[in-house]
Sequence to fold (179 residues):
Amino acid sequence: MLHLEDAGAAAIVMHSLFEEDVRNDELMIDRFLVNPDAFGEAAGHVPFGDHYQSRLDGYLEQIQTLKSRLAIPVVASLNGSSLTGWVELGKEMQDAGADALELNAWFMPGDPRVSGDALEDHYLALLRELKQVVSIPVSMKLSPFFLRCRISCAMPKRRALPGSRCSTASSSRISISTP
Fold:
C-alpha cells in the first residue's frame, strides 16, 4: 500500500467485508470455541479461543494498520445483508479508523410484488440508519440491475436524504454518496 501512496494514490479502498462471513464466524466461534463440549473428540482440532482471529477482527486490524502507516484516506468496504449488520459493522469500521465507508448494496427481493418504491425505501432506510451512528462519508454502490440511472439518481432527492449526491462511474454502477 505504501507503494500506491508513493505513486500518487489519493485513497485506498479496501476489499469488501461480507456480513454473512462475519455472522458465520460468530456461529462457528460459538459452536466450537464457546460451547465446545458437544464435540469433545474434535476439541484437539480447533484453535484455542485466544489464537483465533475472526474475519471481522482481521479486517478491523487491517484498517488500524493501514491508518498507522498511510497519510492518505482509507475507505472500508462493506457488503451487508441486514440493517443491523450495516449499522453495527459500519460503526466498528469507523471506530477502527476508516475515513469513509463504501457500501455494496445488493438486495434482490424474492417477491415480484415488491415495488420499486419499496426497494428505494429499503436502501434509503439503510443509509439513514447508518448515518445516525457514523460521521464519516458513506458511498452506496447499487447493482447494475437496480433501476435505470436517472431514476436512481433522483431517488435521494425524492426521499429527502439531505446532502446526498449521485454519480455513475459506468453504466453498470450507480453510487449515492453522503457527506
